[in-house]
């Protein structure tokens, strides 16, 4: 039996489409974990990246923090957090957020730094407040790169959120872990396929977001 | 009036960008700051809108110290144009121009209609309004930059090498456009450039600055060319300052020779009577009076004059409107050594020899010297 057969068998099994272990439930859980982690990572990474990028200070510190957090093994962190905090959503969120912050933070910083300085100079000379310069001049120009950073963070979160299943939570990791435990490879492959699909959907969603939010003037000139 | 009063800018590392500079920038005219790179001209400009704060000295605008004014409202009262225009890539042309009115709290519709008005003023086609900056040429972008600076109708315009990044032909067009706009609007313009030709062309007053941020000379362009303060200014003006100075003398003083001109349908008598010993050539004009070319009288056969047999006359100069420089250039380029003067409609008004132009130049210089003495 090859992988395609596994996939076909998994998705055609009617029992996989409803109930607490059904595909819609697991996908919804997975999306929920992913969005939550991405929202927290963005809430931390975007403001810091924007402000440090605007003032051009703290780049070295950022690089250090990013490298440091990248070197933390996600699974190790999960185990550590569970030992420390017990079971629950928080110990899962922490490693996911730690994983997602570096791409968001570093890309945002670099994106703002790489905005053409002459419109910024012009804006300042016209009497724009610093916050307006950041949000109305730098951010629109930096947006394609910033969205790129958020996208890679989102993809990493989506593919890593399977770890939630290790600590008894749901999400698509459930199929993979249960399947491995039960030696039900149909389930393993089905779960993995769903994770891969979700990563692709994420790419599509970000493409749509950038079509809507990035000005045509920036999109074509960049 | 903008008054720069012994202003020094010293950076923390000890570099002195501007050194005890004092300037009085007259209202409603173009004052050009010119000098080699590193002479502090841009720093001086940027101190006027407080993009750079002086280390010592003060700058006053209509008697008020600018350091006492809120920085953003000060900047909004001064248009700011920079090299490469610095347009906002994510905004359409009309929204770029509407920036300062919007900052001042105008509603969108009013700001946009003002922006469209300005597009017309700077010579931009209205069809470009909805375009994005990347869709425009460098020269068009720079026009947008000027329009954006003028949008809120500020009394002062600061221009930092605005035309340096465009090619010479476009630059000349932009310079003419600026002079035309200035004729209409009468702004107080401070213009920074490293190009002395541009300075002389645009400035009512020119401040030549030297490396180290010191003022070398502050004078109207004609005076700069006739009496440079020192060898630095003289070198900076270049070797042809004498020729360039002729731009400031009118061609009106030239005495035109009207005899050696015949129309293309001239009779044999006319050809004979208009040839004189002083003018070995005759200028042939079309029936509309426009010059066609030169010919020796002996080569002209009445009734059979063709434009192909004529010698080119180079280019004409417009009598009274063009300067002695244009007249001299016309004479130098003419194969006969005679310049052709035309009236406003392009009809031949007369011809003039290099020798006559030379006399006019000497007379103008003599007059310029007495004028300078009277002024001094």
UniProtKB/TrEMBL annotation, chain A:
<protein>
    <submittedName>
        <fullName>ABC transporter permease</fullName>
    </submittedName>
</protein>
<dbReference type="Pfam" id="PF00528">
    <property type="entry name" value="BPD_transp_1"/>
</dbReference>
<feature type="transmembrane region" description="Helical">
    <location>
        <begin position="153"/>
        <end position="176"/>
    </location>
</feature>
<feature type="transmembrane region" description="Helical">
    <location>
        <begin position="75"/>
        <end position="101"/>
    </location>
</feature>
<dbReference type="GO" id="GO:0005886">
    <property type="term" value="C:plasma membrane"/>
</dbReference>
<dbReference type="InterPro" id="IPR000515">
    <property type="entry name" value="MetI-like"/>
</dbReference>
<dbReference type="GO" id="GO:0055085">
    <property type="term" value="P:transmembrane transport"/>
</dbReference>
<feature type="transmembrane region" description="Helical">
    <location>
        <begin position="33"/>
        <end position="55"/>
    </location>
</feature>
<feature type="domain" description="ABC transmembrane type-1">
    <location>
        <begin position="27"/>
        <end position="206"/>
    </location>
</feature>
<comment type="similarity">
    <text>Belongs to the binding-protein-dependent transport system permease family.</text>
</comment>
<keyword id="KW-0812">Transmembrane</keyword>
<dbReference type="InterPro" id="IPR051204">
    <property type="entry name" value="ABC_transp_perm/SBD"/>
</dbReference>
<feature type="transmembrane region" description="Helical">
    <location>
        <begin position="188"/>
        <end position="209"/>
    </location>
</feature>
<dbReference type="InterPro" id="IPR035906">
    <property type="entry name" value="MetI-like_sf"/>
</dbReference>
<keyword id="KW-0472">Membrane</keyword>
<keyword id="KW-0813">Transport</keyword>
<keyword id="KW-1133">Transmembrane helix</keyword>
<dbReference type="GO" id="GO:0031460">
    <property type="term" value="P:glycine betaine transport"/>
</dbReference>
UniProtKB/TrEMBL annotation, chain B:
<dbReference type="GO" id="GO:0005524">
    <property type="term" value="F:ATP binding"/>
</dbReference>
<dbReference type="InterPro" id="IPR027417">
    <property type="entry name" value="P-loop_NTPase"/>
</dbReference>
<dbReference type="GO" id="GO:0015418">
    <property type="term" value="F:ABC-type quaternary ammonium compound transporting activity"/>
</dbReference>
<keyword id="KW-0813">Transport</keyword>
<feature type="domain" description="ABC transporter">
    <location>
        <begin position="2"/>
        <end position="237"/>
    </location>
</feature>
<dbReference type="InterPro" id="IPR017871">
    <property type="entry name" value="ABC_transporter-like_CS"/>
</dbReference>
<dbReference type="Pfam" id="PF00005">
    <property type="entry name" value="ABC_tran"/>
</dbReference>
<dbReference type="InterPro" id="IPR003593">
    <property type="entry name" value="AAA+_ATPase"/>
</dbReference>
<keyword id="KW-0547">Nucleotide-binding</keyword>
<dbReference type="GO" id="GO:0016887">
    <property type="term" value="F:ATP hydrolysis activity"/>
</dbReference>
<keyword id="KW-0067">ATP-binding</keyword>
<dbReference type="InterPro" id="IPR003439">
    <property type="entry name" value="ABC_transporter-like_ATP-bd"/>
</dbReference>
<protein>
    <recommendedName>
        <fullName>ABC-type quaternary amine transporter</fullName>
        <ecNumber>7.6.2.9</ecNumber>
    </recommendedName>
</protein>
<comment type="similarity">
    <text>Belongs to the ABC transporter superfamily.</text>
</comment>
């Amino acid at each position: 039996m090859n992988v395609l057969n596994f996939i076909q068998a998994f998705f055609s099994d009617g029992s996989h489409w409803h109930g607490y272990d059904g595909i819609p439930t697991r996908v919804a859980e997975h999306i929920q974990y992913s969005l939550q982690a991405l929202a927290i990572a963005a809430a931390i990474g975007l403001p810091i990246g924007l402000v440090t990028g605007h003032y051009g200070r703290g780049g070295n510190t950022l690089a250090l923090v990013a490298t440091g957090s990248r070197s933390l093994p996600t699974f190790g962190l999960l185990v550590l957090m569970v030992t420390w905090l017990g079971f629950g959503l928080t110990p899962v969120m922490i490693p996911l957020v730690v994983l997602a912050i570096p791409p968001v933070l570093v890309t945002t910083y670099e994106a703002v730094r790489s905005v053409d300085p002459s419109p910024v100079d012009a804006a300042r000379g016209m009497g724009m407040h610093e916050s307006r310069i950041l949000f109305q001049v730098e951010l629109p120009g930096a947006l394609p790169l910033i969205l790129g950073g958020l996208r890679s963070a989102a993809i990493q979160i989506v593919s890593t959120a399977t770890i939630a299943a290790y600590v008894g939570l749901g999400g698509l990791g459930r199929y993979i872990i249960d399947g491995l435990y039960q030696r039900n490879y149909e389930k393993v492959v089905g779960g993995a396929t769903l994770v891969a699909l979700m990563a692709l959907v994420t790419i599509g969603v970000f493409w749509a977001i950038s079509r809507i939010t990035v000005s045509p003037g920036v999109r074509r000139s960049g | 009036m903008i008054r720069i009063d012994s202003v020094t800018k010293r950076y923390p590392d000890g570099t002195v960008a501007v050194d005890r500079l004092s300037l009085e920038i007259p209202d409603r005219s173009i004052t050009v700051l010119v000098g080699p790179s590193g002479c502090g001209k841009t720093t001086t400009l940027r101190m006027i809108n407080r993009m750079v704060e002086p280390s010592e000295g003060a700058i006053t605008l209509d008697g008020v110290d600018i350091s006492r004014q809120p920085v953003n409202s000060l900047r909004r009262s001064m248009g700011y144009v920079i090299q490469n225009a610095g347009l906002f890539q994510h905004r359409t042309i009309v929204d770029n121009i509407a920036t300062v009115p919007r900052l001042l709290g105008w509603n969108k519709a009013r700001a946009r209609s003002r922006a469209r008005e300005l597009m017309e003023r700077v010579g931009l086609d209205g069809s470009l309004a909805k375009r994005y900056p990347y869709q425009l040429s460098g020269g068009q972008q720079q026009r947008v930059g000027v329009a954006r600076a003028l949008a809120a109708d500020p009394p002062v315009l600061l221009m930092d090498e605005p035309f340096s990044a465009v090619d010479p032909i476009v630059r000349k067009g932009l310079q003419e456009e600026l002079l035309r706009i200035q004729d209409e609007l009468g702004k107080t313009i401070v213009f920074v450039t490293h190009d002395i030709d541009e300075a002389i062309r645009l400035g009512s007053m020119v401040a030549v600055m030297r490396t180290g941020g010191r003022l070398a000379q502050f004078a109207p362009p004609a005076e700069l060319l006739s009496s440079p303060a020192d060898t630095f200014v003289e070198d900076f003006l270049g070797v042809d300052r004498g020729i360039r100075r002729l731009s400031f003398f009118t061609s009106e003083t030239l005495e035109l020779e009207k005899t050696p001109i015949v129309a293309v349908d001239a009779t044999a008598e006319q050809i004979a009577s208009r040839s004189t010993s002083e003018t070995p050539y005759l200028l042939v004009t079309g029936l509309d009076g426009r010059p066609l070319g030169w010919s020796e009288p002996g080569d002209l056969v009445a009734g059979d004059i063709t434009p192909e047999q004529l010698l080119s006359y180079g280019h004409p100069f417009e009598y009274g409107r063009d300067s002695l420089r244009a007249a001299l250039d016309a004479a130098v380029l003419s194969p006969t050594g005679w310049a052709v003067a035309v009236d406003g409609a392009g009809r031949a008004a007369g011809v003039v020899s290099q020798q006559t132009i030379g006399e006019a130049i000497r007379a103008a210089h003599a007059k310029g010297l007495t004028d300078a003495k009277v002024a001094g």
